[in-house]
């Protein structure tokens, strides 16, 4: 009986010790945020190929590098991002088509070419739609922008976040521009998007749609007189070398978009998808901040390089001249245009 009692006491002691150990394990797991039932899924190493058509001085590249850094940090280097600038994987349409079939993983792409794949993106291209950057951010990052971004999945693409190209302005090599009549007879490169083409034809210019890589050659050869782009692009591509005049029309706010191949997106682990989405959002916000910080300095450098800058053209005259564009396209976007105008107000 004494032996039996000693055995029972020993068993109870062991049980109590095990119970305390279990409680300690549970407590530590809870404090450290560790999974109790299973370890978190290990991230499988992967390399993502991100393409742009810009050089390494451009805001797109700044956004891409920030994205690259964030993804590497959040995955402890398991997910790497390889950046291909300078249109080394093709122009923006080619990059988008590559993403559709899975030969390119992702890119930072100007909104205009994206609108050729999903019509609703063209609503953002309407001239003088946004009075300032803050109103554009509110729409793009809000319900309207996210609805339109989600439509990319219908064409085998995944929209991640709206970055920024910025407010577009006119440059040319012939003479100063202050009002629409000053554009008469000028040949201007515009984005390959019908809204851009119609906008500048209403303004009196000979609007020629072409890829940016072709436009740079055309500007150097003098086969076109000018182009329109935000200050960051005008500065990054040293357009003061071929363009003598810059007019701050701020006629269109152009988003840029972090876009991923839908097949590539679907191939990511769920944890990595969340990291990629968050990193694209944060990198986009960072690019916007950098645009705002750098614009004054870039304008000063363009002026120093010899470019004549008109910072106060007759905006009311430009707005009046493009009214037919709204008449032509207003009904094309369902209720998106009305909703944007109401939110901007």
Automatic annotation (TrEMBL):
Supply the alphabetized keyword list: Signal, Transport
The record ties this protein, via InterPro entries, to: DctP_fam (IPR018389), TRAP_DctP (IPR004682), TRAP_DctP_sf (IPR038404)
Q: Name one Pfam family in it.
A: DctP
Instruction: Name the domain of life.
Output: Bacteria
Record-linked PANTHER family: C4-DICARBOXYLATE-BINDING PROTEIN DCTB (PTHR33376:SF7), PTHR33376
Give the family per the record.
Belongs to the bacterial solute-binding protein 7 family.
Protein name from the UniProt record: Periplasmic substrate-binding transporter
């Amino acid at each position: 009986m004494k032996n039996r009692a000693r055995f029972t006491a020993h068993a109870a002691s062991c049980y109590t010790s095990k119970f305390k150990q279990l409680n300690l394990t549970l407590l530590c797991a809870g404090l450290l945020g560790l999974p109790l039932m299973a370890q978190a899924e290990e991230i499988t190493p992967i390399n993502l190929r991100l393409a742009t058509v810009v050089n390494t001085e451009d805001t797109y590249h700044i956004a891409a590098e920030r994205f690259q850094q964030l993804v590497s940090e959040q995955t402890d280097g398991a997910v790497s991002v390889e950046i291909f600038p300078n249109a080394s994987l093709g122009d923006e349409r080619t990059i988008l088509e590559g993403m559709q079939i899975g030969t390119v993983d992702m890119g930072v792409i100007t909104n205009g070419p994206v609108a050729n794949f999903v019509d609703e993106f063209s609503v953002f291209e309407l001239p003088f739609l946004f009075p300032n950057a803050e109103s554009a951010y509110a729409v793009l990052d809000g319900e309207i922008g996210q609805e339109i971004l989600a439509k990319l999945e219908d064409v085998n693409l995944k929209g991640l976040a709206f970055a920024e190209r910025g407010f577009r302005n006119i440059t040319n090599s012939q003479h100063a521009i202050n009002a629409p009549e000053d554009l008469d007879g000028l040949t201007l490169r515009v984005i390959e998007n019908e809204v851009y083409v119609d906008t500048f034809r209403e303004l009196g210019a000979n609007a020629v749609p072409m890829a940016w890589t072709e436009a740079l050659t055309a500007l150097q050869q003098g086969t076109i007189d000018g182009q329109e782009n935000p200050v960051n692009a005008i500065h990054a591509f040293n357009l003061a070398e071929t363009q003598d005049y810059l007019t701050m029309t701020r006629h269109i706010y152009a988003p840029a978009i972090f876009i991923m191949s839908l097949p590539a997106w679907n191939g990511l682990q769920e944890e990595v998808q969340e990291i990629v989405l968050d990193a694209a959002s944060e990198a986009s916000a960072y690019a916007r901040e950098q645009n705002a910080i750098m614009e004054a300095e870039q304008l000063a450098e363009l002026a120093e390089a010899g470019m004549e800058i008109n910072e106060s053209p007759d905006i009311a005259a430009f707005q009046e001249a493009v009214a037919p564009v709204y008449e032509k396209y207003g009904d094309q976007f369902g209720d998106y245009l009305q909703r944007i105008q109401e939110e901007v107000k």
